[in-house]
Amino acid sequence: MGAPSGDAEVADPEAVPCDGDNVEVAGGAGAVSVRLPCEEVGGMGAIEIQGCWRSTAGVHEVWAVLTDLTTWPDWWPAISEVEVVEPRGSALAAARLTFSTRPPLRPLVTTLEVVDQTAPSRLDVLVADGPLGGHGVFTVDEDPEGSRSCYDVSLSVRSLLFRPLEPILRSGTRTSGRARLERAGEDLARLAGGEPLPQHAPG
Prior knowledge:
By secondary structure, the protein is mostly beta strands. It has helices at residues 59-66, 166-170, 175-191; strands at 23-25, 30-35, 46-55, 79-85, 93-99, 108-118, 122-129, 132-143, 146-157, 196-197. The protein has one domain: Alpha-D-Glucose-1,6-Bisphosphate, Chain A, domain 4. Strands 1, 2, 3, 4, 5, 6, 7, 8, 9 and 10 form a ten-stranded antiparallel sheet that branches.
């Protein structure tokens, strides 16, 4: 990993303090909840993000995109490259993901494993190695106008050696980070052959 710069870190006016509250952004294709847990394991940085997207794409079409790990750079934020690798142990599938970062950090590389899935409704993934650890659940359900896709992802820095990565996690609390998560739903919808819908169905 690249070394951190020698400059003192400047407080980010958009970063959310660790007060245990969720940050909600509504509108567009979905709502995003971002939380910085106050009780971080070993003092390491951590982030929890949840959200849902609605689209006119059908459940099976969204599921096909979601479970094709090679499509993830086309919709999930910051992933620049995916290399499918041989799954280990009981994992169903695996891929080496490369995340774009800002200098002086090098691109972040980690391995994502699919540890369980129930087609076409639930995908459980694990960040198996690399500087970040974590897990995520993605679900796809029927919607009167198409489908509703939700995610619940938790990430944390594995050790003190990777503390320079903490600003990357905190960037998810910024307006730009949350907006990119909302746009991910739009990208996913269009890859599945549909169009994004407002978060709440008409009454």
